[in-house]
Amino acid sequence: CFLKLFGKDLETLLGENDIHPEDVIATGAKLPPMLIVHGVGDTVVPVEGTDKFVELVKRYKSISTMDMNLEDSLMYVRIPGGHEFDLNLGVNDCEWVVKGADFLERHWIT
């Protein structure tokens, strides 16, 4: 699993600095609260990689608010579908959408 490094060094490092998020988490880096949604039938990015990432985030308490409440810091939802899952859902159509909207409002909107 790779993530591109972005930020102040983007222009000088563009395309040259891939990082393993697992290594960064293990060094004590803190992440913002996250909502992660992954299709269990994804053949491009296997869901097991996301399972491992979430497990590591929990093990190292890598989310900035995780010491206060794990359940409120990270929401991980495995849903039917593949890569670029196409769900036509409204905010009240299923429980994870309702909880996800509440999570995003709590952490990112207010």
Write structural notes for this entry.
With 110 residues, the protein is an alpha+beta fold. The protein has five helices and four strands. The strands form two sheets. Strands 1-2 form a two-stranded antiparallel sheet. It starts with a strand and ends with a helix.
Mean pLDDT over the full residue set:
76
**What oligomeric state do the depicted chains represent?**
single chain
Roughly what percent helix? 25-40%
Q: How many E-type strands? A: 4
Low-confidence stretches: 1-17
Tertiary shape: flat
Q: Tell me the number of helical segments per DSSP (H or I, 4 or more residues long).
A: 5
Supply the helix-strand structural class: alpha+beta
Distance between the termini: 31 Å
Beta-strand residue fraction:
5-15%
What are the secondary-structure elements, in order, as H or E? Answer: EHEHEHHEH
Using the CA coordinates, give the radius of gyration: 15 Å
Report on the biggest sheet: 2 strands, antiparallel
Spatial sequence of strands, sheet with the most strands: 1-2
